[in-house]
What we know:
By secondary structure, the protein is mainly alpha-helical. The protein contains 6 helices and 2 strands; from the N terminus they run H-H-E-E-H-H-H-H. Helix 4 (82-93) packs across helix 6 (110-124).
Amino acid sequence: MSASTPRKTAPRKTTTRKRAAAKAPAELGLVLDDDAARAETDKLIADREPLFTIGGTTYTIPKQVPPSWSVKAFTIATEQGETAALAFAAEKLLTPEAWTAFSECETVTESAMRTVLQALMDRILPDGLLGPKA
């Protein structure tokens, strides 16, 4: 072949790649983040009950919390202590407006403060999660 003659090459075989088929639910184990789980979690958060009232405004917390919040609070409590877990509970259970109203209310008694803070911890770490109470 001379330098000016183009070289003939064999045509390339085109291979079609097979896409991995979606795994059947049985092969995935328990799916924790599907739409049904998300809807159930959203429903839990939306179902609320009154915790305290300040200035005529009633502030609420969820009647039940998503288990993921309890797992996270448990992890925080064991790794960083109860104070850090309480901060997490306040952040998750109360709206920013509720926490501001509570923390800025000059007439909150010690008894009321303890009641509110204990309610937050009891809600996010239900009995038995950290072991039996003494």
